[in-house]
Design brief:
The protein is α/β, with parallel strands linked by helices and 370 residues long. It has one domain: Aldolase class I (TIM Barrel, Alpha-Beta Barrel). Helices cover 41% and strands 11% of the residues. The chain is built from 16 helices and 9 strands. The protein has helices at 4-10, 15-20, 24-32, 38-45, 53-68, 106-117, 137-147, 163-172, 186-192, 201-205, 207-213, 230-247, 275-288, 302-308, 331-334, 348-357, and strands spanning 71-79, 123-127, 153-157, 176-178, 218-222, 252-256, 293-296, 315-317, 361-363. The chain has an 8-stranded parallel β-barrel. α3 (24-32) crosses α4, α5 packs across α13 (275-288) and α6 (106-117) packs parallel to α7. The radius of gyration is 20 Å and the shape is globular.
Length: 370
């Protein structure tokens, strides 16, 4: 049975039932437990836990140091194409938006790769819009072949593929998959994905499982904060991560916690998510799943990224751009709109210096195919 069965079991259960009426002793048990139950995880996300954030942060720091030490893996995104067939209302690449569309040639991909690799980064995240016509698997494979000359770890964040297609990319050298469900609430999912192949909720939901089965070394999931009730979303994302961990014990499972940022479509968040809510999310996830990789992107501003670093963050992007060709050509010069605006514009060297000043080891390379 796929993870959709778990979501169906919780569908219709109100927020009050899961997150409001939580006995205080359940929260105390969660903070002491070696293995946290679903109910205890819900208590960590509850409104009642807001008064225990300091204690939760302490427990989260302890677990992060135990399982990850003072290390943070660094990576940066590389956008290959912004052609898209979807109508996602929250995304700047929405097919209805008027913007210059571009797909990098393999030569342009290499130019991007040379600039990125010169910073010392050996982990790259490759992204495209959702267009099988403009960015087919064959095109992505040709780009990966070029990127292998410069990077030891290549992850993809593209449209959902079949297991056979993921296996094709794994054989070419891709070792990681990032794919957000965006929102686990199926009704909201339908409303914010009015057109395009991404409307298929179940096909996207099962994509991380197909990627893990295809042989990827790491798989990261995520919910986009600002679309649905964040407590329910994080609860289901946490259960999804545990489901993947249990089914694929040899795969490194991670989670991202992106908040909606301004983009070409001028979409406003449907619900507000505060900094305190993000802190509660990170600490609850770390206590529930101590071995979970947690990534915080440049969507968040520099000060906040630094403040939340000790409580559970294990991966950070650096020197980021969300424009196609944005590493070699600045956005204001190439005229291409970004997928969304970023907040932390610091270079790789600046992020490295920040981490070292705080006593952390920036990890540029932790994987090499033999």
């Amino acid at each position: 049975m796929s993870f959709y069965g778990t979501i169906s079991a919780y569908k219709g259960r109100g927020q009050a039932q899961i997150f409001k009426n939580v006995p205080p002793e359940l929260l105390r048990k969660a903070l002491r437990a070696d293995e946290v139950t679903d109910g205890q995880f819900a208590s960590l996300l509850s409104q009642g836990a807001q008064g225990s954030l300091e204690e939760m942060a302490g427990r989260s720091r302890e677990l992060t140091l135990r399982y990850f030490g003072r290390t943070v893996q660094l990576y940066t995104p590389l956008y290959l194409s912004n052609y898209c067939d979807n109508g996602c209302v929250y995304c700047g690449f929405n097919s209805a938006n008027t913007l210059e569309r571009k797909r990098l040639s393999v030569e342009e991909v290499e130019k991007e790769a040379r600039l990125i690799s010169s910073t010392g980064l050996k982990h790259i995240l490759v992204l495209t819009g959702d267009s099988r016509e403009k960015s087919p698997v064959s095109y992505i494979k040709s780009c990966v072949k070029a990127l292998k000359k410069y990077f030891d770890s290549i992850s993809i964040e593209i449209y959902a593929l079949t297991e056979d297609e993921y296996a094709e990319l794994a054989r070419e050298g891709v070792d990681g998959l990032t794919i957000y469900q965006e929102v686990y609430d199926e009704d909201i999912y339908s409303s914010v994905h009015p057109a395009g192949p991404k409307r298929d909720y179940k096909f996207r939901l099962d994509a991380p499982e197909r990627g893990a089965a295809a042989g990827f070394r790491n798989v990261s999931i995520g919910t986009l904060f600002g679309l649905g009730d964040w407590r329910r979303e994080v609860f289901l994302m946490g259960l999804h991560a545990r489901y993947l961990m249990d089914k694929f014990p040899g795969v490194d499972i991670g989670a991202s916690i992106p908040r909606i940022r301004p983009n070409a479509g001028a979409f406003s968040p449907m619900v507000e998510v505060s900094d305190s809510d993000i802190v509660q999310t990170i600490t609850a996830l770390r206590i529930f799943l101590p071995r979970l990789s947690i990534s915080v992107s440049t969507r968040e501003d520099p000060g906040f990224r630094e403040n939340i670093l000790p409580i559970g963050v294990t991966r950070m992007s650096a020197g980021s751009t969300t424009c196609v060709g944005g590493h070699s050509i600045k956005a204001d010069e190439n005229g291409r709109a970004p997928q969304f605006e970023i907040s932390d514009r610091r270079s790789v060297d600046e992020i490295r210096a920040m981490l070292e000043k705080k006593g952390y080891q920036p990890v540029f390379k932790d994987w090499m195919e033999i």
